[in-house]
């Protein structure tokens, strides 16, 4: 990664001040993703285009609200809207039944109607929770995503996966419910803690690893500028990620096939999150970074991918400041058996058999059900997990 590179961008790619629009082509459920500096100011006008109602509930978390709620509420008020804020505590533990019930109660208390729109202002936690609440409130109301983390801008605000965690595992209760609009305002990232920025970057790298080797190579060169929040590279990284996700979702909205590739690193990652208690010990994006390295190393173990590609993946994520092995997780070793137990609750399990996303190399991910549990356990142990 070089910070000093000033090469001109390719024609048609984002530079400072530019905004981009990515369309998610889902027929009756199609929507736009607006990306760039200041696009959240478009909210009142865009809401008007979606509904004649003049009341809007905004679900956010307390930390995001402290930084970004007031300007949105003011802009809405100036446009004749009554905004009803509903706040939840920040962090992954808000993705649970108790918080869902609370959000639903408060939406009903505010008499949010079927034709109203609910706005999710926040990271993936707020987006997943709000989207789920919207999908079951009065049997379904529309919602708009205003993602405020890099992770949410490149991934969770797009594609309509909503849900919460349960004591049995990650995202095990939820729905597919597409947003009606996504406004990814890159200015919001100015207040995002660096650790959260790096965690979101893991999901950016994911798109290169799944099917876009040139994008991965571009990130190797320009990733530091993305992480430094330089507008041009940042907008380009968000837009490239959203285009990849939009195309995948448009082709396979409910994950009957190809959408599963977006789960690269997640079967491992979700197990790591569960075993670390969905705590600050390990963020979702960090778990995905470790999971992607595990997936590439396992692919190399099985002779499916060049070891050099696995090494390149690890080197880039490490250079970005992300954890890259189980041994990097603070707070003591995790047990192989516990991790395998969590992996078996994955939603991609068929007839008790795990579906894994592996790769033939960078940009060449594929799904498989042909990996023995012993090979997975051996890889976890080699990565620093404790075996009995
Ligand atoms: N639905 C999907 O397709 C999808 C995709 C990827 C991840 N996810 C889910 O997303 C969640 C992770 O999302 P996340 O990484 O955004 O975490 P998050 O929502 O917990 O946000 C991270 C932290 O940053 C704070 N924050 C958010 N925006 C801020 C800003 N602009 N300035 C200052 N602080 C800010 C939040 O208060 C929080 O403490 C996980 O639950 C994951 O499972 C879902
Ligand atoms: O949108 C998808 O599809 C993804 O898999 C994106 C993932 O980054 C995201 O973390 C998603 O929530 C995981 O989905 P799950 O079905 O494994 O819970
Ligand atoms: Zn993810």
UniProtKB/TrEMBL annotation:
Task: Name the coiled-coil region(s).
Answer: none
Q: Which keywords label this protein?
A: Amino-acid biosynthesis, Aromatic amino acid biosynthesis, Cobalt, Cytoplasm, Lyase, Metal-binding, NAD, Nucleotide-binding, Zinc
UniProt-listed InterPro entries: Dehydroquinate_synthase, DHQ_synth_AroB, DHQ_synth_fam, DHQS/DOIS_N, DHQS_C
Name one matching Pfam family: DHQ_synthase
| Entry's localization field | Cytoplasm
Location of the 3-dehydroquinate synthase N-terminal domain: 86-198
Which reaction is catalysed here? 7-phospho-2-dehydro-3-deoxy-D-arabino-heptonate = 3-dehydroquinate + phosphate
Single annotated GO MF: nucleotide binding
Q: What is its EC number?
A: 4.2.3.4
| Pathway per the UniProt entry | Metabolic intermediate biosynthesis; chorismate biosynthesis; chorismate from D-erythrose 4-phosphate and phosphoenolpyruvate: step 2/7
Question: What function does the entry list?
Answer: Catalyzes the conversion of 3-deoxy-D-arabino-heptulosonate 7-phosphate (DAHP) to dehydroquinate (DHQ).
Which NCBIfam families does the entry mention?
aroB (TIGR01357)
Write down what this protein is called.
3-dehydroquinate synthase
Lineage of the organism: Bacteria, Pseudomonadati, Pseudomonadota, Alphaproteobacteria, Futianiales
């Amino acid at each position: 990664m070089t910070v000093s590179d000033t090469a001109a961008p390719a024609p048609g790619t984002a530079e400072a001040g530019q905004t981009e629009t990515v369309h998610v082509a889902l027929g009756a459920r199609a929507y736009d993703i607006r990306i760039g500096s200041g696009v959240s100011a478009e909210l009142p006008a865009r809401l008007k285009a979606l509904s004649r109602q003049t009341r809007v509930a905004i679900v956010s978390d307390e930390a995001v609200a402290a930084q970004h709620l007031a300007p949105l509420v003011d802009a809405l008020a100036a446009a004749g809207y009554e905004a009803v804020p509903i706040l939840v505590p920040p962090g992954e533990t808000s993705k649970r039944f108790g918080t869902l019930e609370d959000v639903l109660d408060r939406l009903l208390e505010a008499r949010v109607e079927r034709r109203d729109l609910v706005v999710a202002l926040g990271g993936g936690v707020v987006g997943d929770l709000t989207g789920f609440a919207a999908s079951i409130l009065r049997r379904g109301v529309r919602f708009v995503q205003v993602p405020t983390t890099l992770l949410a801008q490149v991934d969770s605000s797009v594609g309509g996966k909503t849900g919460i965690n349960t004591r049995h595992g990650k995202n095990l209760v939820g729905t597919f419910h597409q947003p009606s609009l996504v406004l990814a305002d890159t200015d919001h990232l100015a207040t995002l803690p660096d650790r959260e920025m790096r965690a979101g970057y893991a999901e950016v790298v994911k798109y290169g690893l799944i099917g876009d080797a040139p994008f991965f190579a571009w990130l190797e060169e320009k990733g530091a500028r993305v992480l430094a929040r330089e507008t041009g590279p940042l907008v380009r990284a968000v837009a490239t990620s959203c285009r990849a996700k939009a195309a995948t979702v448009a082709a396979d909205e409910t994950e009957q096939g190809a959408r599963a590739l977006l789960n690269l690193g997640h079967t491992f990652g979700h197990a790591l999150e569960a075993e670390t208690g969905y705590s600050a010990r390990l963020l979702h994006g960090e778990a995905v970074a470790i999971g992607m390295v595990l997936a590439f190393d396992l692919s190399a173990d099985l002779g499916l991918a060049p070891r050099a590609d696995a090494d390149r993946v690890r080197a880039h994520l490490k250079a970005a400041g992300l954890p890259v092995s189980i041994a990097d997780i603070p707070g003591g070793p995790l047990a192989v058996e516990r991790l395998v137990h969590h992996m078996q609750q994955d939603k991609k399990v068929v007839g008790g058999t795990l579906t894994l996303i592996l790769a033939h190399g960078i940009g060449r991910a594929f799904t498989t059900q042909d990996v023995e549990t012993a090979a997975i356990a051996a890889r976890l142990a080699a990565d620093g997990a404790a075996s009995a």
